[in-house]
Please model this.
Amino acid sequence: MSPYVPLDVHSEYSLHDSVIRLPELVETAAASGIPAVGLADDGNLFAAVKFARAAEARGIKPLLGIDLVLAGGTAGRREDPGGGPRVLLYARDLEGYRHLCALLSRRYALGPSAPGVPEAWLDEPVEGLIAVLGRASDVGHDLAHAREKDALAHLERWLRRFPDRLYLGVTRLRRALDAVHLQAAVDLAARRGLPIVALNEVRFLTAADYDAHEARVCIQEGRTLDDPQRRRRFVEDQYLRRPEEMAELFRDLPEALANTVELARRLNFAPSLGGIHLPSYPLPAGEAPEASLRRQAREGLAARLARARPGTDPRPYGERLERELEVIVQMAFSGY
Model:
């Protein structure tokens, strides 16, 4: 396997900070000899099925996760428009994927103005998930600002949640405090026996895509490229580096690259594709699902027509229902 697997990759489904289209992502990874890609879009799993299908078609292992913003946490990172500190969560298995779906569903129920996922939700059982704490996490933020005591306190909470499933992520993107954070994270990982992983916070495919990426960020923020008040949150280095580039960049920390491969080996979930997945619904004894659907639809129409204005002709409604039922049955029960 390649000495490096990219993690913390955002796609075009991260609307505010990525221009990466899934087909191009998979093709670029395949051409670069990258055997697995860790997709972790910003607070959503919208790309999961499309990404998994495209990746598997090119012989690439899809690693599915989310880049999750936390609210009500402790030391927050306020550099992103998304709000508080972040954590990368990857699905190790089906149970982990279900936890990701549950977290996001609960988050959406809070409404669009909610600042993020309450950190207390992660104190509940989260088996099947692996966590990566990068520079944008509460631990990373404190390490970058030399607040070691606070970082240790946060780390203890994360270790209770993910006792054997926790990694510290480090970057070399030539941003302010990157070097400070990296050294502090490496020291902390060594003291606590934690693995570190190299991240490149990938938001575009090549360095040449940086300008297009910045234009998208400006559109999302309602600003212009030449706005002197605009905060530059991204750098040209956040592209999908080839394994040999990462090997050179982290030549003094080969374990940070090796651990990306080890993490990829631990993640063994991909959506089941090509089958029909329907919820288990209680049916009358001896009645098939298709027959039950037709019966209930017809009964529902009859109930509505019984409340219609006198003289209403039921035939057009019945004919339309039968046409719609044929389409629905075909899609639901025939794998259309």
The radius of gyration is 24 Å.
